[in-house]
C-alpha cells in the first residue's frame, strides 16, 4: 500500500466522482439542482418536476412532464402479493426497516433488474433499449416509493391498502394512500399537500451524502437498482443522517421546555448528549434548506395549530447560535428540524425517516443513472486501505499457546 494515505476520517475531503447533478457551497450556504437555486425551485416548481430535472438535467416541456408523470403514476401500483410481505412484520416494526426490506423485496421479482445476471447487455452509448430499461426502473422506483411507504404505515394500523385516483399529484396521492379511511371524495388538505411537496423537493438530492454514496457503492457491482436503493435506505436510517429528523423530536421532547435548554446545552458541551438537527459535514454557515423549512412550518402551523415543542426548539436554536462552543465548530441548524412539520401534520415519529427516504429515492436514482450511462461504463468502487496491522508471523498450535 505504498504511496497511499488515508483520506481524512469519514472521507472528510475526498471526491470520488465528477457529477453534473447537485452543487453545494458549504461556506456560502448554496444548494442548486442542475444549476437552479433551491430557493427558486421550492417556490416555483414541484417535487415531480424537480425529479425530472435532477434525473434528465433539464426542466421538462409540458409533454415531457405529462409523460413522466403518467409513467410514474402507472408504476405506482404494487403487486397484490406484496400484501403478505408487509403483513409479515411484527406490529411494532420500525417503518424504515420495513421500507428498506420492501425495496429489496421489489428487486426479488423484477428479473430484468439485474442485467449482468439476466445476460441483458449493459448500457452502451446510443443503445436505446438499455436506456429505456434504466428509465423504466426509475419510473417504477419513484412511483412505488410512495406506495411502499404508505403500505408500511397502514400495515401497522391494520388497515387495508388503497389506490389513489390518478388525478391527484404525486404528493397528494401519497397523502391519500396514507390517510384515506373510506370517506367519499377524500382530498388532502391543499396547504399540507403543498408543504409536504416542498419538503419532498428539498430532500430530493444532496450530492454525495452517506446514503447516496452507499447506493453508488452498491450499484457499482452491477446489482439491480432495487437492492442498491435498499442499501441507501439502510444508510439513511441512521441518526447521524436521515434518522436525525426523528432524533430531533425525541431530543425536544426529552428537553421538555425552554427552561431546560441551558442544562441541555451544558450536557451537549460535555458530550453527554447530542444536539440533533445541528451541524453538517458540508454546510459551515447555514443549510439553505433550513430557511425554507422555517417558512413552510409557519404555513403548516396556520392550519394545524402551533406545536408547543416549537418554543423549546426556538430556545435551543437561539442558545446554540450564540454559544461559542457551537459557533467555533460552525454548527448551524440543518434540514432535520422539518420533523416539527411532520409532527404537526400527524405523522408518527418513527415514520419521519421514511418521509426523508421517499423523496431521496429521486436523487439516488439521478446519481445511479449518471453512473450507469457514464462514458467507459461502470467501474466497481473498491477503495484501498493503509495496513497498520501485525507483520508476518507463524501459526502456533493451541496447546503451545499461553
Ligand atoms: C443530513 O451529508 C449530507 O448532505 C446529509 C444531509 C442530506 O441531505 O443528505 O444533509 C442530511 O444527514 C443532515 C445531518 C443530520 N444529522 C444530525 O443532525 C445529527 C447531529 N449532527 C452531527 O452528528 C454532525 O454534525 C454530522 C454527522 C451531521 C456531521 O458530522 P461531521 O461532519 O463528521 O462533523 P464532526 O463530527 O467532525 O464535528 C466537528 C465538531 C466535533 O467537535 P470536536 O471533536 O472537533 O471538538 O463539531 C462537533 C463534533 O463533536 N459536533 C457537534 C455536533 N455536530 C458536530 N457537537 C454537538 N452537537 C452536534 N450536533
Automatic annotation (TrEMBL):
The keyword DNA damage does not apply. Pathway: Carbohydrate metabolism. GO terms for biological process: monocarboxylic acid metabolic process; tricarboxylic acid cycle. The active site is at residues 280, 336. It comes from the Eukaryota. Keywords: Transferase, Tricarboxylic acid cycle. One of its GO terms (molecular function) is acyltransferase activity, acyl groups converted into alkyl on transfer. Belongs to the citrate synthase family. This is Citrate synthase. The chain holds residues 57 to 458 of 488 of the full protein.
Amino acid at each position: 500500500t505504498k504511496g497511499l494515505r488515508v483520506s481524512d476520517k469519514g472521507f472528510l475531503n475526498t471526491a470520488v466522482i465528477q457529477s453534473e447533478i447537485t452543487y453545494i457551497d458549504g461556506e456560502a450556504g448554496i444548494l442548486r439542482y442542475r444549476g437552479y437555486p433551491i430557493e427558486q425551485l421550492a417556490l416555483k416548481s414541484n417535487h415531480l418536476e424537480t425529479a425530472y430535472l435532477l434525473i434528465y438535467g433539464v426542466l421538462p416541456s409540458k409533454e415531457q412532464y405529462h409523460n413522466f408523470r403518467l409513467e410514474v403514476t402507472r408504476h405506482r401500483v404494487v403487486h397484490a402479493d406484496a400484501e403478505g410481505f408487509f403483513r409479515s412484520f411484527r406490529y411494532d416494526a420500525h417503518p424504515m426497516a420495513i421500507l428498506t426490506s420492501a425495496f429489496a423485496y421489489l428487486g426479488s421479482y423484477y428479473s430484468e433488474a439485474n442485467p449482468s445476471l439476466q445476460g441483458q447487455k449493459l448500457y452502451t452509448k446510443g443503445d436505446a433499449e438499455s436506456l429505456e430499461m434504466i428509465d423504466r426502473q426509475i419510473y417504477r422506483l419513484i412511483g412505488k416509493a410512495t406506495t411502499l411507504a404508505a403500505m408500511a404505515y397502514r400495515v401497522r394500523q391494520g388497515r387495508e391498502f388503497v389506490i389513489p385516483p390518478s388525478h391527484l399529484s404525486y404528493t397528494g396521492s401519497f397523502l391519500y394512500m396514507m390517510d384515506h379511511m373510506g370517506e367519499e371524495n377524500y382530498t388532502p388538505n391543499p396547504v399540507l399537500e403543498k408543504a409536504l411537496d416542498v419538503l419532498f423537493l428539498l430532500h430530493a438530492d444532496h450530492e454525495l451524502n452517506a446514503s447516496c454514496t452507499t447506493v453508488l457503492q452498491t450499484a457499482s457491482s452491477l446489482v439491480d437498482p432495487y437492492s442498491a436503493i435498499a442499501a441507501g435506505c439502510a444508510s439513511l436510517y441512521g441518526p447521524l443522517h436521515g434518522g436525525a429528523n426523528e432524533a430531533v423530536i425525541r431530543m425536544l421532547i426529552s428537553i421538555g421546555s425552554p427552561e431546560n435548554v441551558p442544562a441541555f446545552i451544558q450536557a451537549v458541551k460535555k458530550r453527554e448528549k447530542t444536539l440533533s438537527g445541528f451541524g453538517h459535514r458540508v454546510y459551515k454557515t447555514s443549510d439553505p434548506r433550513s430557511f425554507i423549512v422555517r417558512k413552510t412550518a409557519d404555513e403548516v402551523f396556520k392550519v394545524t395549530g402551533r406545536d408547543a415543542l416549537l418554543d423549546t426548539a426556538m430556545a435551543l436554536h437561539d442558545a446554540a447560535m450564540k454559544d461559542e462552543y457551537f459557533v467555533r465548530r460552525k454548527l448551524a441548524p440543518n434540514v432535520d428540524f422539518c420533523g416539527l412539520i411532520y409532527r404537526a401534520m400527524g405523522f408518527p415519529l418513527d415514520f419521519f425517516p421514511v418521509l426523508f427516504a421517499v423523496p431521496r429515492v429521486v436523487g439516488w436514482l439521478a446519481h445511479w443513472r449518471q453512473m450507469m450511462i457514464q462514458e467507459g461504463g461502470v467501474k466497481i468502487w473498491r477503495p484501498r486501505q493503509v495496513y497498520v496491522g501485525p507483520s508476518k508471523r507463524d501459526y502456533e498450535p493451541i496447546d503451545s499457546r499461553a
